[in-house]
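Example record

One chain of 95 residues, shown exactly as stored in the release files.
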Amino acid sequence: MTLDLRLEKLKQIHSDKKRDIIRIAATPGIPIRRKQLLYACLNNLCQLSARLFGEISNNPGNHDLLEDAAELDASLLALRKQVGSFIPTRTRQAA
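Predicted structure tokens for this chain:
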């Protein structure tokens, strides 16, 4: 699969699922374990995005593709951080 196609698929997954991911993570009645699984899946997507960014940066002349990959990477990291903010830590649970 070409680099641009892989990037496009990751962008599509992000754009299609972002709203649902935030909705699930923000819902108080959702079990913590489910939110942790969402976070783990986002972590995997971030790793895929980082690998793809590395592959794109190794190929000269892909400046537009590289910028798109950087934007996607930043957006995935922000989404992961947002989901993480909805997962209580042990100290917050005890309080």
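Notes: The helical segments are 3-26, 32-58, 63-85, 90-94.
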